[in-house]
């Protein structure tokens, strides 16, 4: 049976949400972070050598890495639903936002976060934090433009691209606050997603203490 | 016509290689890095708001982000060749290495590189560089194990997973040297890839001053 190993408040929240949107059977195993340092606990690390969330198991298979897990579940258990095929006009939009989420946006935010937590002399002496902030500013501007063209990242329908993009736009803002006042399209998007029954079910099951209201 | 905009010594070398392996028609436009700072030049940034390599154009479409561009070309111009479908036993292997390359490995290496270039007090005061080194050590160990099981990352055949994985294993080592003496499977893999006619054609066309010998 497909088992989603969810580490509290981590990228595996995407996978619970995906399974709820697809309406497929899955088992949810909740894992708590190590109280010291908030890392993955040893039993989570033992599931797959990557050691970080998300990790799923499916029979003999253990699989990590968000993009791989989303593609695997859509392809293997979702009959291709929530993806966009090469014959559709929005194929490239789907692919861009799907891959951009963890290929560029998440790394930029994690580096920004790493510097936010670093001693002041580190922040002052390095130009990396400022460069990442410029990059994420450009990202938010592009996201706002995109969500003015379409209700969801790939077009009219919620897809795997939204499953990938929501985490940097919701979870990460709890640690790197960002003023959304000038981004009405993004605010409307967050309300639209937060109102989805499958999203609310995922929150209740995976992270009941985190509000489903995303704005 | 499909146009690959290649920025010298950058992730767009993947896209040239992919087109050569698929044997599809494409136009190659070479762009030189800004002499100051070695960033993308203004005309490259004007192609797509992400501003960094790779970027392709195809009719009215401009597309960035390595994973998206590889999936797009395979799906739209390659008839699905060099990918692995959900009905195959190595579907998960394909997806894992494809997404791991830019979702985790490249960010870890780029952070390591950022710290290597930072003032000494930054390196000393931060734990991020050391954590990234631990992560990439684990990555190299897993890569060595994987390449002991199969000739290519997804199995017997070269696929998009290799197109994604080679860059961190070749290009990035020029800036973050790593001793491969204890990694015979990886060394054999690099020889295998470097000997491919399509890889050699891509090198000659895209980066003729960079040796095709990868070891």
Structure description:
- 2 copies of one chain form a homodimer.
- The mean pLDDT of chain A is 94.
- In chain A, helix 1 runs parallel beside helix 3, helix 1 packs antiparallel against helix 7 and helix 4 runs antiparallel to helix 6.
- Chain A has a 4-stranded mixed β-sheet, covered by helices on one side.
- Chain A is an alpha+beta fold.
- In chain A, strand 3 and strand 4 form a beta hairpin.
- Chain A has 9 helices and 4 strands; from the N terminus they run βαβαββααααααα.
- Chain A is 51% helix and 9% strand.
- At the A-B interface, strand 4, helix 3, helix 4, helix 5 and helix 6 of A face strand 4, helix 3, helix 4, helix 5 and helix 6 of B.
Defining traits:
homodimer; 215 residues
The largest sheet of chain A, given as strand count, sense and whether it forms a barrel, is: 4 strands, mixed
**Strand composition percent of chain A:** 5-15%
Total number of strands of chain A: 4
Radius of gyration of chain A: 17 Å
Low-confidence runs of chain A (pLDDT<50, min 5 residues)?
A: none
What is the averaged pLDDT score of chain A? 94
Please trace the helix and strand order of chain A, writing H or E for each element.
EHEHEEHHHHHHH
* Assembly state: homodimer
- Label the overall shape of chain A: globular
Q: State the largest interface.
A: A-B, 43 and 43 residues
Number of helices of chain A: 9
Class by alpha and beta content of chain A: alpha+beta
Range of helix content of chain A: 40-55%
Give the strand line-up of the largest sheet of chain A.
2-1-3-4
User: Terminal Cα separation of chain A, in Å?
Assistant: 35 Å
């Amino acid at each position: 049976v497909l088992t989603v190993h969810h580490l509290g408040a981590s990228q595996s929240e995407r996978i619970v949400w995906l399974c709820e949107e697809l309406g497929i059977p899955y088992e949810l195993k909740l894992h708590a972070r190590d109280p010291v340092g908030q890392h993955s606990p040893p039993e989570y690390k033992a599931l797959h050598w990557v050691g970080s969330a998300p990790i799923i198991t499916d029979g003999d298979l253990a699989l990590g890495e968000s993009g791989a897990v989303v593609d695997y579940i859509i392809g293997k258990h979702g009959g291709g639903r929530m993806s966009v095929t090469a014959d559709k006009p929005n194929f490239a939009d789907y692919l861009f936002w799907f891959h951009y989420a963890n290929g560029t946006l998440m790394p930029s935010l994690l580096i920004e976060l790493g510097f936010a937590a670093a001693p002041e002399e580190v922040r002052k002496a390095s130009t990396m934090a400022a460069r990442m902030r410029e990059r994420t500013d450009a990202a938010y501007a592009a996201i706002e433009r995109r969500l003015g063209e379409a209700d969801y990242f790939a077009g009219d329908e919620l897809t795997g691209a939204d499953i990938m993009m929501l985490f940097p736009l919701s979870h990460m803002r709890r640690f790197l606050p960002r003023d959304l006042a000038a981004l009405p399209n993004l605010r409307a998007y967050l309300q639209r997603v937060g109102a989805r029954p499958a999203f609310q079910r995922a929150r209740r099951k995976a992270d009941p203490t985190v509000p489903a209201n995303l704005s």
